[in-house]
Write a structure and sequence with these properties.
The protein is α+β, with helices and mostly antiparallel strands. The chain is built from 10 helices and 15 strands. The chain has helices at residues 50-60, 79-100, 125-138, 144-150, 199-211, 243-263, 282-293, 296-303, 309-316, 379-387; strands spanning 9-14, 26-31, 37-42, 66-70, 111-115, 159-164, 169-175, 188-193, 228-233, 271-279, 329-332, 335-339, 342-343, 356-362, 368-375. The strands form 3 sheets. A 6-stranded mixed beta sheet has the order 13-12-11-14-10-15. The protein has a 5-stranded mixed beta sheet with strand order 3-9-8-7-6, with helices on both faces. Strands 1-2-4-5 form a 4-stranded mixed beta sheet. The longest helix has 22 residues, at 79-100.
Length: 390
């Protein structure tokens, strides 16, 4: 159930000393397949980390043979020197892989780089490059779990997935427990497939998948500088699925990882699905759902097991979506506490004792629906993000 489940991929995760805890912090994923197609989506934050700027250039070439990832430092807001560090990481990785397996013969322009951790500090390059060499030595078909562990920051557990096609497979790993607010991606994620697919097909499938999965995860309204989702194709299965088949499998993998992200959100005690129905269009449905997901009054109410539909309706009212205020219905865990913009069923009927919460908002303005996933705002979230530099 990892990035190495599809044929043609090896991975590794090692401890290089980037984390004070001594936990693993450098991961490497290598495509050994006959093909090396790639697609990617990145943060829309105007402040982009050096690895994002580097990998954007690499992906435009259409070929990626390796992805090196580190936790313990974001290499963001580090200026030209930070970009040179990223370039040096790619060069070192390419050289180490070529030396270990000359048939690869890859250059720095075929190595994507991803980083996660504290913003504003240079990476300790001697430790990082030593970690790269260790990861090259440790590459194996069974290394996917170790790679997923090495990219964790405030995550409490690694996040991996597999989705199967007919004779081909999609695998994946992701990290993310905070700063999860999308604008095309929400964290670091590497997806792999042994399907035969070119960059154009991969790009279409990935963008369709992220639009309805990662792009609708909104944990805390904070957008990272390092968000990257990569999709690599080895072609090792020899099977070329249709674009629709590939999109379905990639979407399934992304959906699974997105749900794991929300389940592991920093300090969360509730996993919340905000279902907006009856919208005039998809943009309206997403805007309404995101407004509720980012509303601290709603999130704190749910932390306190309070089905405060007034706060939900107030959040809906901040949007530009088409609706009539006296025509909106709201249900919390199946109880319609608001009908026609006013009180309806007794809110005491709402059971919020469990972790899963569903808020359903009917705008009665059309026939479009969308779901945004979020979590509550707890004491633990505040403590974690005030006591720990992330």
């Amino acid at each position: 159930m990892t990035v190495t489940t599809p044929r043609g991929f090896r991975a590794a995760g090692v401890a290089a000393g980037l984390k004070a805890s001594g936990a693993s912090d450098v991961a490497l994923v290598v495509n050994d397949g006959p093909d090396a197609g790639v697609a990617a989506v990145f943060t829309a934050n105007r402040v982009k980390a050096a690895p994002v700027l580097w990998t954007q250039k690499v992906v435009r070439g259409g070929v990626v043979r390796a992805v090196v990832l580190n936790s313990g430092g974001a290499n963001a807001c580090t200026g030209p020197a930070g970009f040179q560090d990223t370039h040096a990481t790619a060069e070192h990785t390419a050289a180490a892989l070529t030396a270990s397996s000359p048939r690869l013969m890859l250059g720095a322009g075929e190595v994507a780089v991803c980083s996660t951790g504290l913003i504003g500090e240079r990476l300790p390059m001697s430790a990082l490059l030593s970690g790269v060499r260790g990861a090259v030595r440790g590459l194996s078909r069974d290394g996917g779990r170790q790679a997923a562990e090495a990219i964790m920051t405030t995550d409490t557990r690694p996040k991996t997935t597999v989705a199967r096609g007919s004779g081909w497979t999609v695998g994946g790993m992701a990290k993310g427990a905070g700063m999860l607010a999308p604008a095309m991606a929400t964290m670091l994620c590497v997806l792999t497939t042994d399907a035969v697919a070119g960059p154009g097909t991969l790009d279409a499938a990935l963008r369709a998948a992220t639009r309805v999965t990662f792009d609708r995860v909104d944990s805390d309204g904070c957008m990272s500088t390092n968000d990257t989702v990569l999709l690599l194709a080895s072609g090792a299965s020899g099977i070329e699925p249709s674009e629709a088949e590939l999109t379905a499998a990639v979407t399934a993998a992304c959906h699974d990882l997105a749900q794991q992200l929300i389940a592991d959100a920093e300090g969360a005690t509730k996993q919340i699905a905000i279902e907006v129905v009856g919208a005039a269009g998809e943009e309206d449905a997403v805007e309404v759902g995101r407004s509720v997901a980012r509303n601290n009054l709603v999130k704190t109410a749910l932390f306190g097991n309070d089905p405060n539909w007034g706060r939900i309706l107030a959040a809906v009212g901040t949007t530009a979506a088409a609706f009539e205020p006296d025509g909106v219905d709201v249900a919390v865990n199946g109880v319609w506490v608001c009908r026609d913009g006013a009180a309806a069923e007794d809110r005491s009927k709402v059971d919020l004792a469990g972790r899963d919460v569903t808020i359903r908002i009917d705008l009665h303005a059309g026939d479009t629906a969308a779901t945004i996933w979020t979590n509550d705002l707890s004491h633990a979230y505040v403590h974690e993000n005030s006591a720990y530099s992330s």
